[in-house]
Amino acid sequence: MNIFLLQLKKSPRAIVGLTILLLWVFIAFAGPSLISWSYTHMDMEYQMAAPGEGGHTLGTDALGRDVLSRIVYGSRSILTIALMTSLFSSIAGIIIGFTAGYFGGLIDTIFLRIMDILMAIPPLVLAMVILGILGNSTILSLTIIVSIAYTPATARVARGALLTCTSNEYVDAARIRGESHLYIMFVEILPNTIGPVLVEITARFAYSIMMIASLGFLGVGLQPPTPDWGMMVIENKSIIRTAPWTVLYPSLAIASLVIAISLFSDFISKVMIHEE
Amino acid sequence: MNFLERFLKRLGFMILTIFAMSILIFFLVEIMPGDVAQTVLGQAATEESVAALRESLGLDDPIHVRYFRWAGGFIQGDLGQSLYMRGVEISSIFWRRVGHSMILAFTAFIFYVPISILMGILAGVKAGKLTDSIISVFGLATMALPEFVSGIILITVFSVYLKLLPIASLIPIGETIWGNLDILILPALSITIVMFGYVSRMQRSSMIGVMSSDYIRAATLKGMPRGYVIFRHALKNALLPTITIIGMNMGWLFGGLIVVETLFGFPGLGSLTLSAIKTRDVPLIEACVLFITFIFVFSTFITDMAYAFLNPKIRFKQGEV
After folding, report:
1. Nearest to A258 among B32, B145, B262 (CB)
2. ipTM of the predicted structure?
3. A51, B133, B226, B294: which has the highest count of C-beta atoms within 10 A?
4. Per-residue DSSP letters for B25-42?
């Protein structure tokens, strides 16, 4: 942990990334109690108000809803879903990838082929089709579908990480001791693959944000009136000429969050690879 | 495994993948809530008319019969009829949309491939210097950026403030895409920004790897000009991983097109897919998604073959690679 902090001090990029990320987490937790407008309130006097007018710091949209308030509330759902999907897809990936890599042989071959087939459809297309078909997406359905769409990728990473460890002596030692397969996989091997797994989780976090924002943009994400960053962009795209703030600020919110996580995850991968 | 064996094996696997995906897509759409005939006719329809439509669409047949009828038609180039636009043959709109998307993908391709490779080489050669930092941070920042975010930023700058390029990529009725090529620029640039991160990072790391190898050091020590060493010696080997990445991402590019086409209202395959989902047009969803899968699998296959052909280690090796 000390090494980690020491490395962090030397990397201005990572500090910037982590600061912005923590800022968004803070906004998601405390933001709603600090702003004066509810995200559904339609201010009839100030429709498409420019930033600053009528007490709307970032302006209002065509219905007179406060842009800042919708961005602040929107940060909650996107952070929650992205965090859960990166965790769930990593856990599912570890279980599937470890099982395939550990037992090898036919199980592994079948696993690899199935993953190849599932990877033949872009994750965004897969998630979009399923969510579109099911209709009325919720936080739960988004989390499950996006996790499923990402699991083939995480399972491959987990399998690769396991394979670098299986030939180590401590694995043989555990086997000779007569430990169960589950014990060897999750108590002996898993802690030794923590580097690549952590790298995968943080990188997946950035891609989850990208995917969830895109799904919201395509209209198959969370349903109105729940504020969603991606949805805000497509809802207001037609008024971009007269009220550019209604699309620009949610876009910048997405960009800042994604860039912050990318910068931080790049740092994690550098530290982890350096340590090994 | 020689080249021919590898070719046949991959070809077989490609066909298997498309077959498996077609089953998956068919059953996925099958679980769609609500009755298809009811959706088409609306809530006001009588029970008899719903039953009659079910009969004429063959919806009462067992599922495997319907699957083989659909897949069989597909192989023969019959994509079926649209449900939402009653009586319209899907192929009459589908291929024009595919053509538009191909043109857009190609435009994006000729933007991002040279830029990303050149910037990647520059960053790799200047590794650790300021030039490298700027290129690397930019690439890192844009890697996971959704295409609509880069698109919105471009629209704000080039359409709203500078008023240089159109906000939407619509083709006026009666005209073709060839008379409206300016509508391609912003969508292609939006894709370029996102792809740049991925490709340039790949090129950078493979360049660094090659530049530190013995044969490059030998060439440098012989006193060869640096530009000659980089472009004649190093690049040949440093390009191979990048080409693989670009090829593997061709299908992924088609996924990204859905977002870009929706943002710009571009009449391509991506926006067609989304509107098919929105209108619950079952045959159209199946046609679009299966075609995207086909592009994805096919480009992977081509990349793999090109890689095997370009890499003498695989071309001439007899054993398993």
Report:
1. B145
2. 0.84
3. B294
4. HHHHHHT-SS-HHHHHH-
